[in-house]
Design goal:
- The chain has helices spanning 35-49, 69-86, 95-101, 148-158, 169-179, 196-208, 227-235, and strands spanning 2-7, 12-19, 22-30, 59-63, 90-93, 109-115, 120-131, 134-147, 162-165, 184-186.
- The chain is α/β, with parallel strands linked by helices.
- It has a five-stranded mixed β-sheet with strand order 3-2-1-4-5, sandwiched between helices. A five-stranded mixed β-sheet has the order 8-7-6-9-10.
């Protein structure tokens, strides 16, 4: 089974190709260029480097949200375009689930926090449970948009050691010191941001479970209204 994986849900732009349990290629950039300028050229570079035959690809896995509205739209359009061109399905991987999968196999509770602005985070609570030779991702609290204090309270009540990761960590680092009552650590540089490799690895699991849709049926999961939509709603009151 071979998947192309895409993640443009945040500042990170990331493309990967995963075949069975092997990461064939990954191209990840975290810099200020817009994803509309980077994602397709990155994919083309990967395709050329590994001589990828698109006919051999089984599906396109994509970070389906939440995240940057613009980034999600670009990732969604790219995934749909590839899906239509190859006549292959899309595996929609929730962004926060994909982030949690960076820490595969840990015995700690995993809490990704993405900065959602307006004092909120996109977050969830996860753990890994062993099943034979592998671990499966167990969702304790499904991805959501909440105030950081709210997720911190849920973690304190859970009473287990936590690993935080995501671009919300530097934003809420000082608040963590004030409010966290359970031991916690912060993921290192190679694990603390979105990676298409994780989207591809988790996407492979979901694909095997039959969790995929047509390119036409796929829609991103924003979790919140965009700024323009919020302003429109506020203007109507």
């Amino acid at each position: 089974m071979k998947l192309i994986a895409l993640d443009s849900s945040g500042l990170v732009a990331s493309v990967a190709v995963v075949e069975d349990d092997i990461l064939i290629a990954e191209y990840t950039i975290q810099y200020k260029k817009t994803h509309s300028q980077t994602l397709l050229p990155m994919l083309e570079e990967v395709r050329n480097m590994i001589e990828l035959d698109l006919q051999e690809v089984d599906a396109v896995a994509v970070a389906a949200g939440p995240g940057s509205f613009t980034g999600l739209r670009i990732g969604s359009a790219t995934a749909k375009g590839l899906s239509f061109a190859m006549e292959k399905p899309v595996v929609a991987v929730p962004t926060v689930d994909g982030l949690a999968y960076n820490l595969y196999g840990t015995d700690k509770v995993v809490c990704p926090i993405m900065d959602a602005r307006r004092s909120q985070v996109y977050t969830g609570i996860y753990e890994f449970l062993r099943e034979g030779e592998k671990y499966c991702l167990n969702i304790i609290k499904r991805q959501c948009a909440v105030a950081f204090d709210e997720i911190a309270q849920a973690l304190n009540e859970l009473g287990r050691e936590v690993i935080f990761l995501g671009d919300g960590v530097p934003v809420f680092r000082e608040r963590m010191k004030e409010i966290m009552q359970v031991p916690y650590t912060l993921a290192p540089a190679h694990m603390n941001r979105q990676r298409a490799a994780s989207i591809g690895a988790l996407g492979s699991v979901y694909y095997a479970q039959g969790r995929f849709v047509s390119g036409e049926a796929f829609v991103p999961e924003y979790l919140r209204l965009s700024q323009a939509e919020r302003e429109k709603c506020e203007g109507n009151h």
